[in-house]
């Protein structure tokens, strides 16, 4: 009855004298209702259990990337051209160094966070200004800064400068760190090539500018 057959069909199927064989469609239907296989019913297999694959097909879209977790963007803070800063180079001569204005409270826009930097919420970004670090940093490029990463000799850094009478940041330097001690920080710029020092009394913070490999791989 389950496969749509009448009593006569079942009687003929069970009569050895008639040797009735069901069609392939009927055989499949019988196997499905008896929860066995066509091979078992036809004598080609001794195992009545149906072999089931662990792999299934589904029309439902599966997002292999996992759930979409909202990640905050990286704020691009306000920077701009600023008056030069007079510093002392390693030979003792006073020179002029390019610096940029800095307004951490003004966000120009929010940048999309690279996957490798997910969960790092203290990051901020700046525009590079001037030509002092070309060709490493071109004017108008964006650099991402991580305040939490330790600063090491040879790193590219963002030095936040105060006005001398408080720790309030008034400008920044984007340079390469040569070395530092309790009294001063020694920095390098590429264009024009010069190594110079800034008194620690004028430095509020030194933050690391992330390199490309860190942006890609964390």
Per-chain topology:
Blueprint: H1 7-13, H2 24-33, H3 38-41, E1 74-81, E2 85-89, E3 94-97, E4 100-111, E5 124-127, E6 142-146, E7 156-162, E8 169-180, E9 184-190, E10 193-199, E11 203-209, H4 212-217
Antiparallel strand pairs: 1-4, 2-3, 2-10, 4-8, 5-6, 6-11, 7-8, 7-11, 8-9, 9-10
Polypeptide structure, described:
The radius of gyration is 37 Å and the shape is rod-shaped. The longest helix has 10 residues, at 24-33. Strand 9 and strand 10 (193-199) form a beta hairpin. It is 12% helix and 36% strand. It folds into 2 domains: 1-52, no CATH class; 74-217, Umud Fragment, subunit A (Ribbon), CATH 2.10.109. With 218 residues, it is mainly β.
The CATH homologous superfamily name of the largest domain equals Umud Fragment, subunit A
And the CATH topology of the largest domain? Umud Fragment, subunit A
Category from helices, strands and their pairing: mainly beta
Identify low-pLDDT runs: none
Please give the largest β-sheet.
11 strands, antiparallel
Overall structural domain count: 2
- The oligomeric state of the chains shown is single chain
Distance between the amino and carboxyl termini: 65 Å
Task: Write down the overall geometry.
Answer: rod-shaped
Helix content: 10-25%
Secondary structure tally: strands: 11
How much of the polypeptide forms β-strand, as a percent range?
35-45%
H/E series, N to C? HHHEEEEEEEEEEEH
If classified by CATH, what would the architecture of the largest domain be? Ribbon
CATH class of the largest domain: Mainly Beta
Provide the residue-averaged pLDDT: 85
What's the Cα radius of gyration?
Answer: 37 Å
Number of DSSP helices?
4
